[in-house]
């Protein structure tokens, strides 16, 4: 669902509802209504503002295929918090990849 995708991306980017609402230029309460499913039909203008602020496209926010659902199901709140903290601490994708390779190597020996 669109509301889950918006919330997921907001958390991945490390934004609070207040931060994203300011960045997108929409009210905090309206964004909250969207994320909670109270507002189910935001305009394309609002979706465009949110997509731009989240570094994605409107299509991505609206996409409801299996791939998106799979991502949401496998990325629980704790993982999102861990990734957000790692990003905030300056850990890059390359650093993370090297760490995973090290753990795999260590577990084999």
UniProtKB/TrEMBL annotation:
<dbReference type="InterPro" id="IPR010982">
    <property type="entry name" value="Lambda_DNA-bd_dom_sf"/>
</dbReference>
<dbReference type="InterPro" id="IPR036281">
    <property type="entry name" value="SinR/SinI_dimer_dom_sf"/>
</dbReference>
<keyword id="KW-0238">DNA-binding</keyword>
<dbReference type="InterPro" id="IPR001387">
    <property type="entry name" value="Cro/C1-type_HTH"/>
</dbReference>
<dbReference type="GO" id="GO:0005829">
    <property type="term" value="C:cytosol"/>
</dbReference>
<dbReference type="InterPro" id="IPR010981">
    <property type="entry name" value="SinR/SinI_dimer_dom"/>
</dbReference>
<dbReference type="GO" id="GO:0003677">
    <property type="term" value="F:DNA binding"/>
</dbReference>
<dbReference type="InterPro" id="IPR050807">
    <property type="entry name" value="TransReg_Diox_bact_type"/>
</dbReference>
<dbReference type="GO" id="GO:0046983">
    <property type="term" value="F:protein dimerization activity"/>
</dbReference>
<protein>
    <submittedName>
        <fullName>Helix-turn-helix domain-containing protein</fullName>
    </submittedName>
</protein>
<feature type="domain" description="Sin">
    <location>
        <begin position="66"/>
        <end position="104"/>
    </location>
</feature>
<dbReference type="GO" id="GO:0003700">
    <property type="term" value="F:DNA-binding transcription factor activity"/>
</dbReference>
<dbReference type="Pfam" id="PF01381">
    <property type="entry name" value="HTH_3"/>
</dbReference>
<feature type="domain" description="HTH cro/C1-type">
    <location>
        <begin position="6"/>
        <end position="61"/>
    </location>
</feature>
<dbReference type="Pfam" id="PF08671">
    <property type="entry name" value="SinI"/>
</dbReference>
């Amino acid at each position: 669902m669109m509301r889950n995708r918006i919330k997921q991306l907001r958390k991945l980017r490390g934004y609070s509802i207040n931060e994203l609402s300011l960045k997108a230029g929409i009210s905090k309460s309206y964004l909250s209504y969207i994320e909670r499913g109270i507002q189910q039909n935001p305009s394309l203008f609002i979706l465009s503002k949110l997509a731009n602020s989240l570094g994605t496209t409107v299509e991505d926010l609206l996409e409801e295929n299996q791939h998106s659902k799979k991502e949401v199901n496998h990325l629980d709140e704790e993982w999102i918090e861990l990734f957000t903290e790692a990003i905030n601490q300056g850990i890059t994708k390359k650093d993370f990849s090297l760490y995973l390779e090290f753990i795999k190597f260590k577990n084999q020996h």
